[in-house]
Write a structure and sequence with these properties.
Two copies of one chain form a homodimer. Chain A is 16% helix and 33% strand. By secondary structure, chain A is of the alpha+beta class. Chain A has one domain: Roll (Ubiquitin-like (UB roll)), CATH 3.10.20.810. In chain A, strands 2-1-6-5 form a four-stranded mixed beta sheet. In chain A, strand 3 and strand 4 (60-63) form a beta hairpin. The interface between A and B is large, with 44 and 44 residues. Strand 7 (108-110) of chain A pairs antiparallel with strand 5 of chain B, so a sheet runs across the interface. Chains A, B: Catalyzes the hydrolysis of the adenine ring of phosphoribosyl-AMP. Chains A, B: Its main location: cytoplasm. Chains A, B: In the N-terminal section; belongs to the PRA-CH family.
Chain lengths: 132, 132
Protein backbone atom coordinates (compact mmCIF):
# COMPACT_ATOMS: atom_id res chain seq x y z
CA UNK A 1 0.00 0.00 0.00
CA UNK A 2 1.41 3.47 -0.82
CA UNK A 3 2.57 5.91 1.84
CA UNK A 4 -0.41 7.78 3.35
CA UNK A 5 0.57 11.32 2.49
CA UNK A 6 -2.55 13.23 3.58
CA UNK A 7 -2.19 11.96 7.11
CA UNK A 8 1.56 12.38 7.32
CA UNK A 9 1.22 15.97 6.11
CA UNK A 10 -1.48 16.68 8.69
CA UNK A 11 0.25 15.17 11.73
CA UNK A 12 2.23 17.65 13.82
CA UNK A 13 5.17 15.65 15.11
CA UNK A 14 6.95 17.19 18.12
CA UNK A 15 10.61 18.20 18.32
CA UNK A 16 11.55 14.55 18.91
CA UNK A 17 9.58 13.45 15.83
CA UNK A 18 6.85 11.86 17.97
CA UNK A 19 3.06 12.06 18.04
CA UNK A 20 0.97 11.07 21.08
CA UNK A 21 -1.24 8.09 20.26
CA UNK A 22 -4.21 6.79 22.23
CA UNK A 23 -5.41 3.20 21.81
CA UNK A 24 -9.08 2.61 22.61
CA UNK A 25 -10.92 -0.73 22.62
CA UNK A 26 -13.16 -0.50 19.55
CA UNK A 27 -15.80 -2.65 21.19
CA UNK A 28 -16.08 -1.41 24.77
CA UNK A 29 -14.72 2.12 24.34
CA UNK A 30 -12.22 1.55 27.17
CA UNK A 31 -9.06 3.60 26.81
CA UNK A 32 -6.29 1.00 26.90
CA UNK A 33 -3.07 3.02 26.75
CA UNK A 34 -1.29 6.07 25.42
CA UNK A 35 2.11 5.92 23.78
CA UNK A 36 3.99 7.58 20.92
CA UNK A 37 4.56 6.98 17.22
CA UNK A 38 7.12 8.26 14.76
CA UNK A 39 6.27 8.89 11.10
CA UNK A 40 7.85 5.52 10.31
CA UNK A 41 5.90 3.53 12.93
CA UNK A 42 2.69 5.33 11.92
CA UNK A 43 3.31 4.27 8.31
CA UNK A 44 4.00 0.69 9.40
CA UNK A 45 0.84 0.74 11.56
CA UNK A 46 -1.32 1.76 8.60
CA UNK A 47 0.40 -0.62 6.23
CA UNK A 48 0.20 -3.68 8.48
CA UNK A 49 -3.00 -2.90 10.40
CA UNK A 50 -1.19 -3.55 13.69
CA UNK A 51 -0.18 -0.91 16.20
CA UNK A 52 3.53 -0.05 16.07
CA UNK A 53 4.78 2.50 18.59
CA UNK A 54 8.10 4.16 19.38
CA UNK A 55 9.42 3.28 22.82
CA UNK A 56 10.88 6.43 24.36
CA UNK A 57 12.56 4.46 27.18
CA UNK A 58 14.20 1.94 24.84
CA UNK A 59 14.55 4.39 21.92
CA UNK A 60 13.40 1.65 19.58
CA UNK A 61 10.51 0.55 17.39
CA UNK A 62 7.90 -1.16 19.55
CA UNK A 63 5.73 -3.63 17.67
CA UNK A 64 2.99 -4.00 20.27
CA UNK A 65 2.46 -7.65 21.19
CA UNK A 66 5.68 -8.90 19.58
CA UNK A 67 6.73 -10.54 22.88
CA UNK A 68 3.42 -11.11 24.63
CA UNK A 69 1.35 -11.95 21.56
CA UNK A 70 -1.13 -9.28 22.64
CA UNK A 71 -1.15 -7.38 19.35
CA UNK A 72 -3.57 -4.55 18.66
CA UNK A 73 -5.43 -4.77 15.34
CA UNK A 74 -6.44 -1.40 13.92
CA UNK A 75 -10.18 -0.98 13.40
CA UNK A 76 -10.29 2.78 12.89
CA UNK A 77 -8.11 5.84 13.36
CA UNK A 78 -8.77 9.52 14.02
CA UNK A 79 -6.64 12.67 14.16
CA UNK A 80 -7.42 15.54 16.53
CA UNK A 81 -8.17 19.15 15.60
CA UNK A 82 -4.61 20.46 15.82
CA UNK A 83 -3.00 17.32 14.47
CA UNK A 84 -0.84 16.42 17.45
CA UNK A 85 -2.79 13.45 18.85
CA UNK A 86 -3.88 10.23 17.14
CA UNK A 87 -6.72 8.06 18.42
CA UNK A 88 -6.85 4.45 17.24
CA UNK A 89 -9.79 2.15 17.83
CA UNK A 90 -8.27 -1.33 18.12
CA UNK A 91 -9.06 -4.95 18.73
CA UNK A 92 -6.90 -5.93 21.70
CA UNK A 93 -5.80 -9.53 21.15
CA UNK A 94 -5.28 -11.43 24.43
CA UNK A 95 -7.50 -8.90 26.17
CA UNK A 96 -4.59 -7.14 27.92
CA UNK A 97 -2.88 -3.97 26.69
CA UNK A 98 -0.68 -3.29 29.70
CA UNK A 99 2.74 -4.83 30.33
CA UNK A 100 1.64 -5.29 33.97
CA UNK A 101 -0.95 -7.81 32.77
CA UNK A 102 -3.90 -5.48 33.17
CA UNK A 103 -6.53 -5.02 30.53
CA UNK A 104 -5.91 -1.26 30.47
CA UNK A 105 -2.89 0.74 31.61
CA UNK A 106 -5.32 2.98 33.52
CA UNK A 107 -5.93 0.51 36.35
CA UNK A 108 -5.35 3.00 39.19
CA UNK A 109 -8.37 5.08 40.10
CA UNK A 110 -7.85 8.49 41.68
CA UNK A 111 -10.08 9.20 44.67
CA UNK A 112 -11.28 12.72 45.44
CA UNK A 113 -8.69 12.98 48.26
CA UNK A 114 -5.91 12.13 45.78
CA UNK A 115 -5.34 8.55 46.98
CA UNK A 116 -4.93 5.82 44.37
CA UNK A 117 -7.08 2.68 44.37
CA UNK A 118 -6.53 -0.40 42.23
CA UNK A 119 -9.61 -1.10 40.12
CA UNK A 120 -8.37 -2.79 36.96
CA UNK A 121 -8.74 -6.33 35.74
CA UNK A 122 -5.54 -8.39 35.68
CA UNK A 123 -5.57 -10.69 32.66
CA UNK A 124 -2.13 -12.31 32.81
CA UNK A 125 0.91 -12.66 35.07
CA UNK A 126 3.74 -10.67 33.46
CA UNK A 127 6.41 -12.97 34.96
CA UNK A 128 4.97 -15.86 32.98
CA UNK A 129 4.76 -13.91 29.74
CA UNK A 130 7.99 -11.89 29.78
CA UNK A 131 10.04 -14.09 32.15
CA UNK A 132 10.76 -13.30 35.82
CA UNK B 1 -10.08 19.88 50.31
CA UNK B 2 -6.42 19.08 51.14
CA UNK B 3 -3.77 18.64 48.50
CA UNK B 4 -3.91 15.12 46.98
CA UNK B 5 -0.42 13.95 47.83
CA UNK B 6 -0.63 10.30 46.77
CA UNK B 7 -1.51 11.29 43.25
CA UNK B 8 0.96 14.14 42.97
CA UNK B 9 3.75 11.85 44.16
CA UNK B 10 2.76 9.19 41.62
CA UNK B 11 2.45 11.44 38.57
CA UNK B 12 5.59 11.64 36.45
CA UNK B 13 5.59 15.20 35.13
CA UNK B 14 7.83 15.76 32.09
CA UNK B 15 10.73 18.19 31.82
CA UNK B 16 8.27 21.03 31.24
CA UNK B 17 6.28 20.05 34.34
CA UNK B 18 3.39 18.69 32.27
CA UNK B 19 1.39 15.47 32.24
CA UNK B 20 -0.64 14.29 29.24
CA UNK B 21 -4.34 14.17 30.12
CA UNK B 22 -7.13 12.45 28.20
CA UNK B 23 -10.76 13.50 28.65
CA UNK B 24 -13.34 10.81 27.91
CA UNK B 25 -17.12 11.19 27.96
CA UNK B 26 -18.16 9.25 31.07
CA UNK B 27 -21.45 8.27 29.51
CA UNK B 28 -20.64 7.31 25.90
CA UNK B 29 -16.96 6.43 26.29
CA UNK B 30 -16.06 8.79 23.42
CA UNK B 31 -12.57 10.23 23.70
CA UNK B 32 -13.13 13.99 23.61
CA UNK B 33 -9.64 15.50 23.69
CA UNK B 34 -6.10 15.24 24.99
CA UNK B 35 -4.26 18.13 26.57
CA UNK B 36 -1.79 18.77 29.40
CA UNK B 37 -1.93 19.60 33.09
CA UNK B 38 0.63 20.98 35.52
CA UNK B 39 0.71 19.96 39.18
CA UNK B 40 -1.15 23.16 39.96
CA UNK B 41 -3.92 22.69 37.39
CA UNK B 42 -4.26 19.04 38.43
CA UNK B 43 -4.73 20.15 42.03
CA UNK B 44 -7.28 22.76 40.96
CA UNK B 45 -9.08 20.13 38.85
CA UNK B 46 -9.43 17.78 41.83
CA UNK B 47 -10.37 20.57 44.21
CA UNK B 48 -13.04 22.12 41.96
CA UNK B 49 -14.22 19.02 40.08
CA UNK B 50 -13.79 20.87 36.77
CA UNK B 51 -11.07 20.17 34.22
CA UNK B 52 -8.28 22.75 34.30
CA UNK B 53 -5.49 22.30 31.75
CA UNK B 54 -2.26 24.10 30.92
CA UNK B 55 -2.27 25.64 27.45
CA UNK B 56 1.12 25.06 25.87
CA UNK B 57 0.42 27.53 23.05
CA UNK B 58 -0.69 30.32 25.39
CA UNK B 59 1.57 29.24 28.29
CA UNK B 60 -1.31 29.88 30.66
CA UNK B 61 -3.83 28.13 32.88
CA UNK B 62 -6.76 26.95 30.77
CA UNK B 63 -9.99 26.58 32.71
CA UNK B 64 -11.87 24.52 30.15
CA UNK B 65 -15.19 26.16 29.25
CA UNK B 66 -14.38 29.53 30.82
CA UNK B 67 -15.17 31.31 27.53
CA UNK B 68 -17.55 28.88 25.84
CA UNK B 69 -19.37 27.68 28.94
CA UNK B 70 -18.58 24.11 27.88
CA UNK B 71 -17.00 23.03 31.14
CA UNK B 72 -16.03 19.44 31.85
CA UNK B 73 -17.22 18.08 35.19
CA UNK B 74 -15.00 15.32 36.61
CA UNK B 75 -16.79 12.01 37.17
CA UNK B 76 -13.74 9.78 37.66
CA UNK B 77 -9.98 9.84 37.12
CA UNK B 78 -7.35 7.20 36.45
CA UNK B 79 -3.54 7.17 36.26
CA UNK B 80 -1.67 4.88 33.89
CA UNK B 81 0.90 2.22 34.79
CA UNK B 82 3.99 4.41 34.52
CA UNK B 83 2.33 7.52 35.88
CA UNK B 84 2.78 9.79 32.86
CA UNK B 85 -0.78 9.85 31.51
CA UNK B 86 -4.03 10.80 33.26
CA UNK B 87 -7.45 9.69 32.04
CA UNK B 88 -10.48 11.63 33.25
CA UNK B 89 -14.05 10.52 32.72
CA UNK B 90 -16.05 13.74 32.44
CA UNK B 91 -19.49 15.14 31.86
CA UNK B 92 -19.12 17.47 28.89
CA UNK B 93 -21.45 20.42 29.42
CA UNK B 94 -22.75 21.90 26.16
CA UNK B 95 -21.95 18.63 24.41
CA UNK B 96 -18.88 20.00 22.62
CA UNK B 97 -15.29 19.63 23.81
CA UNK B 98 -13.52 21.03 20.74
CA UNK B 99 -12.86 24.71 20.06
CA UNK B 100 -13.91 24.05 16.45
CA UNK B 101 -17.44 23.35 17.71
CA UNK B 102 -17.20 19.60 17.34
CA UNK B 103 -18.29 17.20 20.03
CA UNK B 104 -14.83 15.57 20.04
CA UNK B 105 -11.48 16.90 18.84
CA UNK B 106 -11.05 13.61 16.95
CA UNK B 107 -13.48 14.48 14.15
CA UNK B 108 -11.14 13.53 11.28
CA UNK B 109 -11.14 9.85 10.40
CA UNK B 110 -8.07 8.34 8.78
CA UNK B 111 -8.79 6.07 5.82
CA UNK B 112 -6.59 3.09 5.04
CA UNK B 113 -4.95 5.05 2.20
CA UNK B 114 -4.03 7.84 4.64
CA UNK B 115 -6.66 10.32 3.45
CA UNK B 116 -8.65 12.24 6.08
CA UNK B 117 -12.44 12.27 6.13
CA UNK B 118 -14.64 14.48 8.29
CA UNK B 119 -16.94 12.36 10.43
CA UNK B 120 -17.59 14.35 13.59
CA UNK B 121 -20.70 16.08 14.84
CA UNK B 122 -20.57 19.88 14.87
CA UNK B 123 -22.44 21.19 17.90
CA UNK B 124 -21.82 24.94 17.71
CA UNK B 125 -20.41 27.63 15.42
CA UNK B 126 -17.14 28.84 16.97
CA UNK B 127 -17.54 32.32 15.44
CA UNK B 128 -20.71 32.81 17.47
CA UNK B 129 -19.17 31.55 20.70
CA UNK B 130 -15.69 33.07 20.61
CA UNK B 131 -16.39 35.99 18.22
CA UNK B 132 -15.36 36.12 14.56
Amino acid sequence: MPVPNDLLDAVQFDDDGLVATIAQDHDTGDVLMMAYMTAETLKETLETGRMVYWSRSRQAVWRKGETSGNVQRVQAAHLDCDGDVLLFQVEQVGDAACHTGHRSCFYRRVERDGSLVHDGTKVFDPDEVYGA
